Amino acid sequence: MNSIYITHTPYHILVSCGLASVYDDSDEKYLIIVSDFKDAEIICKTITNWENNPFTESKLLGGRFYVKKNDVIGGIRSARSNLKTLKRVLTERLNKASNTFIYHDGAPEGQILAYLNSKNGGTNIYVEDGFVIYDNFIAPDLAFYKKIVMKMLWGRFHEHVRVHGTYKHVDKIMVFRPELIRHELVNKELIKIPREVLTCLKDRGLISALLKSYNIDQKSLDVNYIFIIPHSDFLIENKLLKRYSNILNGLIPNLTQVYVKYHPREVMGDFLKIQKFSNVTVLPQSLPIEVVFLALHDKEPRIVISDAFTTLLTAKYLLERTEVISLIGLIGLKNSYLETVFEKIGILVPESIDDLKDLIDEGYKEV
After folding, report:
1. Which domain, by its residues, includes 246?
2. Which CATH number fits the domain that encloses residue 20?
3. How many domains does the chain have?
4. pLDDT of residue 295
5. What's the CA dihedral at 81, 24, 124, 192 to 10 degrees?
6. 193: helix, strand or coil
7. For residues 250 and 353, is the Cβ–Cβ distance under 8 A?
């Protein structure tokens, strides 16, 4: 049996590389990368040249990153082109039952793979796309006529997915923390992703290869504080841009050895003007932050700070001594459901800027 991995983010790709290396014993494995983030070609090339590359072939498809925000027609053309390519590849080269690993079952690319693979008698596995698998967010429903239009655009297989992992052709779900899974998914067959899926990538050379692709010397990595910045669209739509900027401007000048990581799909560059601080290193936005976490395993950062990003989960999962802090309480996004999940995991949620400064002053406790 073959395996097909369809990815949309650097995080998806990293997990796929780990799954294909230590979990998946399929005869042939194919990696599909949808270019929905900056520098997708760099990561694709790095994996292709990786000495321990587990994939038979890696294929890069077009994506939405270089489509202008309001260019609806451009986005449709990109997705329709991808669907045409995927249908051709599956019918001509992979026309048999396969295992498909899908990270975004709401995207037409993931849905057509699941649909065609299901017709062939294959198994479709939704792999966690980060925090949405544990959150309680439900996407708004669409009017009936809009659903009809979507089927006309993509195909009869298309469904509007309101909760990730619920597409009708998904058979199983893989997650790092099955004990925290949202209630809509508990009736699916759950598979726990072993921690080794990520940690093995250091020994297998992918972490150093990715750092080298971005001209980063692994030995030079040295950081006390890591800030992961939300996408500018999120901050602007929620009227949080000024508040977020004020928090960072009040904290960063008083810290030492700070790394800042923008979102892989960010198109506004250093929109918070972080590079003006001499104590800050802005990491390449398409470099998975988990690569940095794994590279820093022997000299962990003191603190990782973000809002409700997936990276808070992976930081807590990979870094044993680092304090992981969410800013949802400070930026006005308090959510009792999220806070309960954070408490179970051990992610701290300060209520005020003074509380945050106290946590930073404490640093981390040596184990």
Report:
1. 216-362
2. 3.40.50
3. 2
4. 94
5. -120
6. coil
7. yes
